[in-house]
UniProtKB/TrEMBL annotation:
<keyword id="KW-0564">Palmitate</keyword>
<feature type="region of interest" description="Disordered">
    <location>
        <begin position="35"/>
        <end position="71"/>
    </location>
</feature>
<keyword id="KW-0449">Lipoprotein</keyword>
<keyword id="KW-0472">Membrane</keyword>
<protein>
    <submittedName>
        <fullName>Multidrug efflux system lipoprotein</fullName>
    </submittedName>
</protein>
<keyword id="KW-0732">Signal</keyword>
<keyword id="KW-0175">Coiled coil</keyword>
<dbReference type="GO" id="GO:0015562">
    <property type="term" value="F:efflux transmembrane transporter activity"/>
</dbReference>
<dbReference type="InterPro" id="IPR003423">
    <property type="entry name" value="OMP_efflux"/>
</dbReference>
<dbReference type="InterPro" id="IPR010131">
    <property type="entry name" value="MdtP/NodT-like"/>
</dbReference>
<dbReference type="GO" id="GO:0005886">
    <property type="term" value="C:plasma membrane"/>
</dbReference>
<keyword id="KW-1134">Transmembrane beta strand</keyword>
<keyword id="KW-0812">Transmembrane</keyword>
<comment type="similarity">
    <text>Belongs to the outer membrane factor (OMF) (TC 1.B.17) family.</text>
</comment>
<dbReference type="Pfam" id="PF02321">
    <property type="entry name" value="OEP"/>
</dbReference>
<feature type="coiled-coil region">
    <location>
        <begin position="87"/>
        <end position="114"/>
    </location>
</feature>
<feature type="signal peptide">
    <location>
        <begin position="1"/>
        <end position="23"/>
    </location>
</feature>
Amino acid sequence: MNKSLSKRWLGLSGLLATLLVVAGCSLAPTYEKPDVNAPSAFKETPVESTASADKISPAEAGTWKTAEPSEEVMRGEWWTIFGDATLNDLEHQAADANQNLKAAAARVKEARAINQTARAGLFPTIDAGFGPTREKLSPASQLQPQSVNVPAQTLWRAQASASYEVDLFGRVASTVDAARADTQQSEALFRSVQLALQADVAQNYFNLRELDAEMDVFTRTVSLREEALKLVQRRFTEGDISELDVARAKSELATARSDTMTIQRLRAASEHGLAVLLGKAPAQFSMAANPLKPVEIRVPPGLPSSLLERRPDIAAAERAMAAANSRIGVAKAAFFPSLTLTGAGGFESATLGDLFQWSSRTFLLGPLVGTALSMPIFDGGRRKGNLANARAVYEEDVANYRQQVLVAFQEVEDNLSDLRILEEQTGTQADAVKSSSRAAQLSRTQYKEGAVNYLDVIDADRTVLQSQRVAVQLAGTQAVATVNLIRALGGGWGDAMPVPVVEPSLAQR
């Protein structure tokens, strides 16, 4: 009998030893980032050298290099390149109080908490308890005849128990890897929200200043219309012209004043939107008028391969792939046995006074305690469905990653072409403003001399107003396109090392 028991324990020990050898072997596929076939250079990269060319690293100047993950590198205060103290202050206010950014920071905390929960599976759980129990044992359990009455008894127990799942096929390790990748994805998404906020603040600020410049144009236009009306009324009083010219001059003045009110309405709405980005109620924020001046900044786009390193949204998509890949390992591990080791030890006695006597000690050890070795046999195809789902999710994330890369390439190309064309267009529009202003001046002079009618003066003035508005709008579009390019590039470029920004909500990690 003893030899039989010894053989059984030896067989069980051999099985446990074999299971412990394979413990921790992950069944997740080897993770590799998919090839996105990045081009060697952007199609719309300016051929001309810029003023900052001597500051660009060889990689940014056109030397190919393989993309390496660097999403965690802080992008820094890129908006300082505009040299605008007001914009700098607005960016800092948004970083401190924007509610969308705070929500993104809270999501990072959530992901880190889930990651901590998943990591707990790598360690045993230990519990302790103390208290009495009342129990009555059956005669059969005590090997007594059925007629024997086993009296009920009260037992006092003070014991600790421990439980540990042996990670036989990497289920726990794959779960931890997936949770870690989810956390990194959440952090990358936070960077993406942060970059979007910074760009939105800069864009709204430049839009507001563009409206100020348009307001300045209309203010000068109203002044010119008022002077023209005085001239027409004087000539009408002198009998040189008919009342028709007076009516036309009044109409042009009223139209200019109405357009001014339209700009005021648009500016108010833009200011309110900027206030919300700063985390303030519109009633708590106002900004003095400051007409926009042309932004003359050239941003080197670098290489498409380096774009994969800088864009936080691309990093988030890549981390989603990594998490999905690890969850394939979790789904595969469900097809294999799981082993849980449990044990309990402490003191047990019939009276509280004898509870902590040395003779009252007791213990119970596994793996035959509790669940022990669990082998899945039949579940109606649930595990097979879970595995197919995990693989499908991974395929979806791969497609999403590649699509995100394509969208990133498009955004950079779009903004590069915008800036290239805008540079030429603003020069052409400046010539149009100059020529239309000269034509308006000549038409007024000729009208005073009676050589042309007032309709010619009106047409010339309208042309000046339109060309000036277009010039101002192009300046605003150029400033916004510059911000968009920086955003499309991930908030940084070249070999410049930006000053890191520490978010208050993420300062303690």
